[in-house]
Amino acid sequence: MECTVRWTGLSGMTFLAETGSGHVVAMDGAPEGGGRDLAPRPMELVLAGTGGCTAYDVVLILRKSQQDIRGCDVTLKSERAEKDPKVFTKVHFHFTVRGRNLKPSLVERAIKLSHEKYCSASIMMEKTAELTHSFEIVDDLTEATSA
């Protein structure tokens, strides 16, 4: 896996990252740091990437467990160190999992497996931060209708 990050110019603090898979992501800094607030901060992307990594795992594990999962949201709330390097010190993951007749024990197991075995991002983050988790299940009783 590789990624190239390029500063876009002499003014401001906007960077473009091109991933090995050919996708481009913009990053920028806060105005007080010389940025123009045009894109997410790099650390916001670290947090978002961690959320995406673990949500991916949870959906995959629940599907393999034959659960009728219809949605998965994860909200991450974090705290960072006050001094440089301003690493994450606490991150709370709250999962909202939607589906039909989901078994709470399997949802809990999927989250645990993600954070202890499969999600590389959260396992790395755990080196500096206290990670906590919670979840809720929303029973999706509505059938999708096609027009």
What are the main properties of this structure?
147 residues, alpha+beta, GMP Synthetase, Chain A, domain 3, 2 domains, three-stranded antiparallel beta sheet, three-stranded mixed beta sheet, 30% helix, elongated, OsmC/Ohr_fam
Break the fold down into its secondary structure elements and pairings.
Blueprint lengths: L2 E5 L7 E5 L4 E4 L14 H23 L3 E13 L7 E13 L3 H15 L1 H6 L4 E10 L8
Helix pairs in contact: 1-2
The helix/strand class is alpha+beta
Uncertain spans:
none
Order of helices and strands: EEEHEEHHE
User: What is the arithmetic mean of pLDDT?
Assistant: 94
Protein name: Peroxiredoxin
Organism: Noviherbaspirillum autotrophicum
InterPro entries: KH_dom-like_a/b, OsmC/Ohr_fam, OsmC/Ohrsf
Pfam families: OsmC
Can you offer a commentary on this structure?
With 147 residues, the protein is an alpha+beta fold. The chain has 3 helices and 6 strands. It folds into 2 domains: 3-33, no CATH class; 42-139, GMP Synthetase, Chain A, domain 3. It has helices spanning 42-64, 104-118, 120-125, and strands at 3-7, 15-19, 24-27, 68-80, 88-100, 130-139. The strands form 2 sheets. A 3-stranded antiparallel β-sheet has the order 1-2-3, with no helix packed on it. Strands 4-5-6 form a 3-stranded mixed β-sheet, with helices on one face. A hairpin with a 7-residue loop joins strand 4 (68-80) and strand 5 (88-100). The longest helix has 23 residues, at 42-64. This is Peroxiredoxin. Pfam families: OsmC. It comes from Noviherbaspirillum autotrophicum. InterPro entries: KH_dom-like_a/b, OsmC/Ohr_fam, OsmC/Ohrsf.
